[in-house]
Write a structure and sequence with these properties.
The protein has about 325 residues and is mainly alpha-helical. Helix content is about 70%, strand content about 0%. It contains 14 helices and two strands. The protein has a two-stranded antiparallel ribbon. Strand 1 and strand 2 form a beta hairpin. Helix 3 packs across helix 5, helix 3 packs across helix 7 and helix 7 packs across helix 10.
Length: about 325
């Protein structure tokens, strides 16, 4: 029974590791939905005034989406790799298609949260009703006095709506919610179609076979995990050595003592080595053998772009 549980746990771990991008995007979307619900309950209050309704409604949909997009850009590791590449190599090693795909990857990953926010806002309809209420034409409402102006129509979303339009309040809100939800569903269809087409384009244009591309993704994930874990240990051991040299001793717990004893650090990596493994990377082949990362290329001591006459090139994307 224990062996069965262990095997199933390993299977689930491998599955989630292979779908890490999909799961991350799903968690971002769920977090955005929760934030949107909280915002609607706590912070959204339509001003119920001409012109202000429109600006407030658009701001409620657009401003949080823009903030979430910028946060997504900042949290994407490719962004800072691209900055490092521009500063050190001025993007000389990146072809135009690869650069375009990289920008698309960064923007696409960052767009998950803002698109989710916009879609949920439109499906709920509150912000759209607030923004559009003053533009409703009274002539379209049977029996309503036609000389009612935007000042009165702008109060439709409010609890204290004037008695002259109270009988038509539900109908106006229903119309506006229909428009809002229609736009939301159209946006969902457009985004889903765009994702499907981009996935097809990605796999059609990829110089790698489907299995090799899967292996490349697993290698990148493993290299990143091992590099970060090793860097953490290396930094701690080096710090312990320097602290001991300054004070004459270093206060370590049992686990840290074992770590310092097991992984002695004699020297640090020079800056040129860090520069060689930092920045964007395009898939390369050297004499028919793949180079999966800058670290892999450095370990093989390949100088320059490391490409032969039949070299393949592909942007480092996690699509």
């Amino acid at each position: 029974m224990a062996a069965f549980i262990t095997e199933n746990f390993k299977f689930l771990a491998l599955f989630f590791k292979s779908k890490d991008v999909m799961i991350f995007n799903g968690l971002v979307a769920l977090g955005t939905v929760g934030s949107q619900e909280l915002f609607s309950v706590v912070a959204f209050h339509c001003p119920c005034a001409p012109e202000r309704n429109y600006m407030y409604g658009l701001a409620a949909i657009g401003v949080p989406a823009l903030v979430l997009f910028l946060i997504g850009i900042m949290l994407n590791g490719h962004t800072w790799n691209m900055v490092a590449e521009c500063r050190k190599r001025a993007m000389k090693n990146c072809s135009t298609p690869a650069t375009f795909l990289l920008f698309g990857s960064i923007a696409g990953r960052a767009a998950v949260a803002p698109v989710t926010w916009s879609v949920i806002s439109l499906l709920r309809g509150e912000a759209y009703v607030c923004a559009r209420s003053e533009f409703v034409n009274p002539n379209t409402l049977m029996g309503l006095v036609t000389d009612i102006g935007p000042e009165t129509m702008a109060r439709i979303p409010c609890k204290d709506a004037p008695s002259s339009i109270l009988a038509y309040k539900d109908e106006v809100i229903r119309r506006l919610q229909y428009e809002s939800q229609f736009i939301g569903w159209i946006l969902i269809a457009v985004v889903a179609s765009a994702i499907f087409l981009l996935k097809c384009l990605h796999h059609c244009c990829s110089p790698l076979s489907y299995l090799q591309e899967q292996y490349w993704g697993q290698y990148r994930s493993s290299e990143k995990e091992l590099f970060n874990r090793t860097a953490e240990v290396h930094a701690k051991v080096l710090a312990a050595s320097n602290v001991k040299q300054f004070f004459g001793f270093v206060a370590l717990n049992k686990e840290e003592q074992e770590m310092v004893h097991e992984y002695p650090v004699e020297e640090v990596q020079p800056s040129p080595q860090w520069n060689e493994i930092t920045g964007l990377y395009l898939y390369r082949e050297n004499k028919g053998f793949p180079l999966y990362s800058r670290l892999h290329k450095w370990a093989k001591k390949v100088i320059g772009n490391g490409t032969d006459a039949d070299a393949k090139e592909m942007a480092l994307l996690a699509v």
